[in-house]
Specification:
By secondary structure, the protein is of the alpha/beta class. Helices cover 34% and strands 23% of the residues. Strand 11 and strand 12 form a beta hairpin. 25% of the residues are buried.
Amino acid sequence: MLLLERTKSSKLIMLESLMRRLAPADSDYSYFKESYQRQVAGFEGEKFVDREWFDMPNLGSHYLFFNYEFENKFGFPHQIDTLLLTTKFLLILEIKNISGQVDIDEDKHQMIITRPDGTLKSYRNPLDQIRRHSQHLILLTQLNVSLPIVGALVFSNPATIIGNVPKNFPIFHSSGLRFFVQKLLKNYPEILQEKRLEKLSGDLLSKLKRQEVKPTINLSRIKKGVLCENCHFQIEMKYQGGLWHCAECGCRNKKSILQAFHDYRVLVSNKITNSEFREFFGIESIDAASKILIRLGIETVGEKRGRHYLIPPDIFTK
């Protein structure tokens, strides 16, 4: 049973907003664009592997968690690409979407990627990350469950060349996932009854804690206002007669403001005052700003000068 759907990570959502609002001429634009492209590739790779689960026979009683996030007892975050809970074991998958050859050096704790153009790049060892996740899944010990935890590194890109990697750790292409899981199901004995499995899945879900990621740059560098999607978010729209109007292409849109609110929530804060709204959205009139905010039905907290508005996570889908 799929218990937790695949969603975009907070980092990817933040970078999407930043790409809309950071000028291409900015000194850090290339850095953030590369980071954004890596996040997109990773997300697409995860979705590619997800399809394997829905074509996998004889899984038995199980619960699947996509993009599972939690905090350990020290308050540090963990993000697990895929978590499979069965009556026999708990499986942690780390998914990589890589073009080129991958070599992993356990002694030096690094992963080396050789790109098709011959360039080399070094990254942290993903096996260390899987082991860290395993060590901190203390929910199991709290419930007195001695369920084995298994980790595997899965490559979603069929073109990835798996080079020199440790032989004692499961590392394979996504096409091998079903065979690997079936082998685990065959080799591990039954430990949990279905009721206990259901209880454990609920406990894991209750510990879900999404991380909010904010940009590491001064927000004075981002573009303000309601931006025109037709103009690739390069032109700031003006508010006229209840609509947002683009002087460049002539586009008029009532909902463009929702995208801007989403970006403000992701990049700045989930709270905004009338004054902050006018400053960021380019509205001069206090009354006009109040009417816009009231019309959107955004929750308010406080009174008079202490009043602020809470921007919901789903503002863009309203």
